[in-house]
Amino acid sequence: MKQFLAFLGTLILLKSCMPEAQKKSLTYQNIIILSDLSDRIKPTINGNIPNQQYPSKDINEIDKILKFFNDECVKPGAKIGDKSCISFSTFSDETIACIDIDKIKDLGAKQQFINSTGKYQNNGLKYEAGIFKQKVKNAYDNIRNKGLDLISVTIDKIENKPIIKKNTVLTNGIDSTFINYDNHIYIFTDGYLEYRGKNSNNQFYFGNPEIEKIRQYCIINKVDVVTALKENISLCLPKVKNEKNQFINLHVLETAERDKNTRLQIYTNPRGLRDNEILEEVWRKWATESNFKSFEWKKY
């Protein structure tokens, strides 16, 4: 008995002398920008008024996202070992521009790239950010896609393309580092979901007739748009769930309102039943039921 107690005491003593396992969690950003370069990108508005914002509204907003990536994610001169990523593509193309910090595995080389020093003095992050901007501008100048099913294309990119980064765990002996990614998909579109081939596949089609159907339902039944979508499932987009959606923050940046006369600054429809307001609730319900981590609708 004494021997057993002595052995037990030795085990307890040894355990107390062992270092505790260290655990830390690091979070990085994975930003995916998808631009709808359909005929919403027009040189005129209301049919004949020159559009002075064409296409600078999108480009200016993308520049803000790129600045956020640089200043708040990668933080040259202030942060070590970042793994964030930013990419840009249209709905009809593979990735057109990408800056993936994690592709550089050596820490010394990574910091030289981030700070644009050493062997990356002339081709580091600052240089790549300039190339990124130019590729975005070139895409807006030269690419036009008509009749694309935006939701189907988005789902395909999420499910079948390597754009979403997964969380991982790095172990070193008894210590663990949890590598987490905030995945963000920014969709630049006007919110309308119109594409060619509606007669053969209208699953994710949502244009003027569908908007008007909701509007009339609200007027006849004296309810708001949110209530209408709850009461009548036929007014909604069908949900699409997959295991990756739960890791994605979805942002829809809306840039056009067809029922607004920009010259007179008036709307065809009353507040609460305007195109933009209906489209926002339709998208929000779809994103929520499709189990996205979060949803943002932004009009600018």
- How many β-strand runs? 11
Describe the biggest sheet?
7 strands, mixed
Q: What gyration radius follows from the Cα positions, in whole Å?
A: 25 Å
What would you call the shape?
globular
Helix content: 25-40%
Give the mean pLDDT.
88
Low-pLDDT segments, ≥5 res: none
Tally of alpha and pi helices: 8
Q: What's the assembly state of these chains?
A: single chain
Element order: H for helix, E for strand: HEEEHEEHHHEEHHEEEHE
DSSP strand content: 15-25%
Q: In angstroms, what separates the terminal alpha carbons?
A: 78 Å
Q: What structural category characterises the helix and strand content?
A: alpha/beta
Protein name: VWFA domain-containing protein
Descriptive report:
- The chain has 300 residues and is of the alpha/beta class.
- Helix content is 36%, strand content 21%.
- It has eight helices and eleven strands.
- It has helices at 2-17, 56-74, 107-115, 125-142, 150-160, 208-221, 225-231, 275-289; strands at 23-35, 44-45, 49-50, 85-90, 97-100, 168-172, 175-189, 248-254, 260-261, 266-267, 294-299.
- Strands 1, 4, 5, 6, 7, 8 and 11 form a seven-stranded mixed sheet that branches. Strands 2-3 form a two-stranded antiparallel sheet. It has a two-stranded antiparallel sheet with strand order 9-10.
- The model has no long low-confidence stretch (mean pLDDT 88).
